[in-house]
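This is your field. Pick holes in the following sequence-structure pair:
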Amino acid sequence: MTETLQSVFDALRERMLRAGGSMDVAKEEPGNLILKTRWNEPGKREPAWFGAVQLKKNYVSCHLMPLYALPAMRDDVSAELLKRMQGKSCFNFKKVELELFDALEQLTAICASAYAEPVVAKPH
């Protein structure tokens, strides 16, 4: 792990915790933060997965599951942030990019508002 990636993880972790304030920390260990909802996922006995910040070998990933479960929310993703998007709910970073991190924090807050109450995922 490089010092740069640790800085990226620390910055994204802080933003995820701040913007996802209504979510519960399901796991927090070095290089791994997972947040879950306070409501159980429909048909399951455990809270729904909200998001995560994870330190990988060559990048840091930030996952926001509301973007997967509620595809219309992807309309709130800026063009610059879309360039960092992998798949339907993950953003990858290799260096600290404060402007993008701020946009991601705003998006995380929007996602947290959408996930404050139980949601029913619609087919993609």
Q: What stands out?
A: The chain has a mean pLDDT of 92. The beta strands are 24-29, 32-40, 47-55, 60-64, 85-86, 90-93. The chain is about 35% helix and 30% strand. The chain has one domain: 3-114.
